[in-house]
Amino acid sequence: MSSKEKVQAAKPPLAAMSGRLIGVSLAPVAVVDIELEEPHLNVAIKPRQLEFPRYPLNSKPPTKRLTIINNGPTPVAFKLLTSDNISYGVSSKFGIVAGRTTGKSRRVDVRIFRKPPDPRSGDAGDKPIKNHLQVLVTELQDPQLTAELAFRQPDLKFDRYKIHLLYTAIPAPAPSHSTPRDDAVKNVK
């Protein structure tokens, strides 16, 4: 038996890990073998958690920015899914982020906002609630496709990112309408 056949015989069956199939040899030999079933997309998503304070019903809802950055050479399409569509909204559910070789901007900012509390979802707005936002990202195979059509392709492979959405139920600080001079006068009196 050759040394290559010994290494092949020592490989364990593939185990599922994070949506990808990875095989790792745990034998006491110095060989570690890792195989990815699908290509990994070089995408960064920031931040990984968004916090939303409580706000008055007659004011504009707080908005947070989620940035999707494509560090890979080819364009990618993304799709956003929230765990609570009644409480959260997004500025665009689908989108495309250009790749390194296209010469266009490789980042897209998406606005995420918290809607007013809705009793239909069991949300009175007085308790902290944890939800999440899933960002699905796939390589855009055909540049003529829109992002929505890209996610309708059969046998679609995508990376999934989970962003935590935290509603703190703590009132947002009231905006101050005084000037620094007004504050100084108050402190003198």
Automatic annotation (TrEMBL):
Recorded superkingdom: Eukaryota
Protein's UniProt name: Major sperm protein
Pfam family, one: Motile_Sperm
Keyword Cytoplasm attributed: yes
Transmembrane segments: none
Every MSP domain range: 42-168
Keyword Cytoplasm: yes
Coiled coil spans: none
Function recorded in the entry: Central component in molecular interactions underlying sperm crawling. Forms an extensive filament system that extends from sperm villipoda, along the leading edge of the pseudopod.
Keywords: Cytoplasm, Cytoskeleton
Taxonomic source organism: Plectus sambesii
Signal sequence residues: none
